[in-house]
Amino acid sequence: MKAVSEFSRLLFGRLTRAEMVRSSLSRKATAEAVERKAAYDKAYVEWNEGGMNAQLLMRRLSAANGYTSIERIFETRLVGLLAESDACVTPSTAEQCTSEHFREIRDDSRHCSFELVSLLDALASTGERPRSPTAEELATLEQACARRNADQLGP
Fold first, then answer.
1. 18 lies in which domain range?
2. Which residues of the chain carry a pLDDT beneath 50?
């Protein structure tokens, strides 16, 4: 489904650009970091512009009229990871984010994102008639989006 592909493109584009900015900042490549940060900011805006579409997509694919479990996981887990990532690529706060912490955020974000996009793709592939995600699918997504070392990580 085209909407799932677009959601995936926006999500992974943002994650990839965050990695690029972080790489520039860690190497103290200031000019490169400024250029990459501008590309990240553009991806950030595109992501936020599509936010409501993403939630409507989740509802449509889940055969739901209201707030869904997928949206809850998306909002409470993935959006939180993206916010942490933002702090690690913003020059004024990036120094407070260790390389190890950023790697944890990156890995957790990618793992959660992959499972979310996979679930949305599976729901989109059911044909004309939408279906609700199974309890097992939701549990898999919930587990994939849980912070693996949350007790060991700082801001």
1. 2-148
2. 151-155
